[in-house]
Design a protein that fits this description.
By secondary structure, the protein is mainly α. The chain is built from eight helices and no strands.
């Protein structure tokens, strides 16, 4: 069964990227009572998934209130994102803009288009994703080009060998 809802609303800067659960059958609730997920709710969800994935252990020592981890829970994603953008050698201004940082005086003079920002982001996709699809697709394209070049060279070698045979006779 496919459910299609037309809310006739547009995304704005106030639209929620992640929002609380809602009843898909209650259109009034969807339209009127949308609320964002709180930072704490999101942190608890991520923490739970990290425990399930074996990346974190549950701290049963309730006496120790602040248990610092080597990789901070939420900010670690931001650090990872930044590191991968740097490793991909993105334009520094665009990198800072993708992180939501202000770029100071440069923002008054430098305003890249969405297309420029997207092209820079494409440079980092391989390092930001777990899925091998993009890397494998590029590898196949490279191998196809190399195969074509090899076939051309093989044809040239064959032609030269034919000329040599004809001269020897």
């Amino acid at each position: 069964m496919k459910i299609c809802i037309n809310l006739q609303s547009k995304l704005t800067t106030d639209s929620f990227l992640i929002r609380e659960d809602f009843d898909i059958n209650d259109l009034e609730q969807i339209r009127k009572r949308a609320r964002s997920v709180s930072h704490k709710t999101l942190a608890n969800s991520i923490s739970s998934y990290m425990v399930k994935a074996g990346l974190r252990e549950i701290n049963h020592d309730y006496l120790m209130q602040f248990d610092r981890k080597s990789i901070p829970l939420i900010h670690g994603f931001r650090k990872f994102f930044t590191t991968q953008l740097v490793n991909s050698k993105l334009n520094p201004e665009i990198r800072e803009m993708l992180l939501g940082h202000k770029i100071g005086l440069a923002s008054a003079y430098y305003r890249p288009s969405e297309e420029e920002m997207l092209q820079e982001y494409y440079k980092a996709i391989d390092l930001l994703t777990i899925n091998e699809e993009n890397r494998l697709k590029r590898k196949v394209e490279t191998l196809e080009v190399e195969k074509t070049q090899f076939e051309v060279l093989a044809a040239k070698v064959e032609a030269l060998q034919q000329k040599i045979k004809q001269k020897i006779k």
